[in-house]
Write a structure and sequence with these properties.
Keywords: Membrane, Transmembrane, Transmembrane helix. By secondary structure, the protein is an all-alpha fold. The protein has one domain. It contains 5 helices and no strands. The chain is flat and about 55 Å long.
Length: about 100
């Protein structure tokens, strides 16, 4: 828990990526979103992921919109890198704010 309190945005990024990997594994195990089993659970979890991990999802959607609605090679890796970069910038900002608030230079 100390690690999560110390680095909340990086912990959030790691959780988001692991959650996406779990959803992808469930999608591969299922037979589609209407199979009445694992595929349906994977579909619901992917919708939940798009809300919880919004910096990653928004990066993905931005890539789609910049490429006329088509994916680019390595699309999800680029989106994950962009989302992780946003989380790293937020983490840097948080640590600078914490140092400023504590009076450290």
């Amino acid at each position: 828990m100390r690690l999560i309190r110390q680095y909340p945005f990086l912990s959030y990024a790691a959780f988001s990526v692991l959650f996406l990997l779990a959803v992808a594994l469930l999608e591969r195990a299922g037979s589609g979103y209407d199979d009445g089993g694992i595929g349906g659970v994977a579909f619901l979890l992917s919708m939940l992921w798009s809300v919880i991990a919004f910096p990653f999802y928004l990066s993905s959607e931005l890539l789609f919109s910049l490429n006329d609605g088509k994916g680019v090679p390595g699309h999800m890796f680029i989106a994950l890198a962009a989302g992780t970069t946003l989380c790293m910038l937020a983490e840097i900002g948080l640590h600078k704010w914490r140092r400023w608030r504590s009076g450290a230079a």
